[in-house]
Write a structure and sequence with these properties.
Length: 382
């Protein structure tokens, strides 16, 4: 399998080995972090009862129980996303090796750099769950004091050494991959485009096609990442009402159900239906499919703008997740604009012979094809 993907390239083998080691090591560490955070979440929830008994005797400031509980629980979603990101980068690299797609390899360099930043924010988010404020009667101070009284319990933020290890290792892996990616860039030399022929217009069209396919993959990942966080926040907020306030009102139940249904429908559309429309449109050069994709993409952009506005207007509703939600939403908006532009460019290139030449490169079409410069010229894959 590795020899088929990497061929005779030593740098391709290095890249696959490094990416595979990265995935295994980081996933193992994140699994440990997730386990420790789960224990910490249970300890904090258990301490709420004793802390709230003191709550009635003092004027307590700082984050409330709901905010602390939501911040603690939402952090688990980030660990899962980080694990999924490791699998995602390995799959993308295998795909890039198979197609000798240097554009995707360069995109993976940026993706690894983003994961370094994500790992750093993970440490900060975990440290900010409970912050001791000297001389203040805060709920966080009370919980920290209660946790400290139990010497047999797992220490607060016991996952910190592992989180720091993830940051350090991600810096090493990302730096190593950047060096290897540069070697692959020089080695491949855009060889896949040379197989299209000498026609610059055809090669430009193929580059736009490849970039569009690559951006679609990142669209799916980041849209799913936003959806997982958003659903976790609204479910936790709904459960908080159920536990502490005698259950949600009928109006709250209807509102929760409507938000959940609308979000799930739009998420399925953005992550499954739209990519299928784009793939069908490209393969069949169907302007109707691409038009439907562009309309759906505009709708997704509008929805993400609405959600971004909600995060800014009501940050308390998204406690513990507003920073990451803002990051994912802004990234989705930027990717969405680029995706729509590339979709429009790909649609303009329909019926110019690109599909036939893609088949020629992949070995699915053995017949000579006409150049976009005229019917009298023939192509050679040399």
């Amino acid at each position: 399998m590795i020899s088929r993907l990497a061929g005779d390239s030593i740098w391709s083998r290095y890249s696959l080995a490094l990416s595979g080691i990265q995935a295994v090591v980081i996933i193992a560490l994140e699994a440990v972090i997730f386990r420790l955070h789960t224990i910490e979440t249970a300890d904090i929830k258990q301490a709420f009862g004793l802390a709230l008994a003191q709550f009635t005797q003092h004027d307590v400031t700082g984050p409330t129980k709901d905010v602390i509980a939501q911040t603690t629980s939402v952090l688990s979603v980030y660990h899962v996303l980080f694990i999924v990101a490791q699998i995602f980068q390995l799959i993308l690299l295998c795909d890039a090796m198979f197609n000798k797609n240097t554009i995707q390899i360069m995109a993976l360099v940026a993706f690894n750099a983003a994961m370094v930043a994500y790992a750093g924010v993970q440490v900060k988010q975990a440290s900010d769950i409970l912050v001791r404020t000297e001389g203040a009667n805060t709920l966080a101070n009370m919980i920290l004091s209660i946790l400290a009284l139990n010497p047999s319990a797992t220490p607060y933020h016991a996952s910190k050494p592992y989180e720091i290890a993830v940051v350090a290792l991600m810096v090493i892996f990302a730096s190593g991959f950047a060096v290897i990616a540069y070697k692959l860039y020089k080695e491949f030399g855009w060889s896949i485009y040379k197989k299209i022929g000498a026609d610059l217009a055809m090669r430009d069209m193929y580059k736009i096609y490849q970039i569009f396919i690559m951006i679609l993959k990142f669209d799916i990942f980041f849209q799913l990442g936003f959806s997982a966080q958003f659903i976790s926040v609204i479910v936790l907020a709904y459960n908080s009402i159920d536990e502490d306030k005698g259950g949600p009102t009928p109006a709250a139940q209807v509102a929760f159900r409507n938000v959940l249904i609308i979000h799930l429908v739009l998420s399925v559309g953005a992550c499954i239906v739209l990519p299928v429309l784009a793939w069908r449109g490209l393969k069949r050069e169907s302007k109707y499919s691409m038009a439907a994709f562009i309309c759906g993409g505009i709708g997704t952009l509008v929805y993400n703008i609405i959600k971004l506005n909600q995060v800014f207007v009501d940050p308390g509703r998204f406690a513990g997740a507003n920073k990451f939600l803002t990051f994912f939403l802004i990234l989705n908006l930027l990717l969405g604009v680029v995706t729509l532009y590339l979709a429009w460019q790909c649609t303009k290139n329909f019926n110019n012979g690109l599909n036939a030449h893609i088949g020629k490169v992949s070995g699915t079409n053995i017949y000579p094809m006409e150049s976009v410069n005229g019917p009298g010229k023939r192509w050679s894959i040399e």
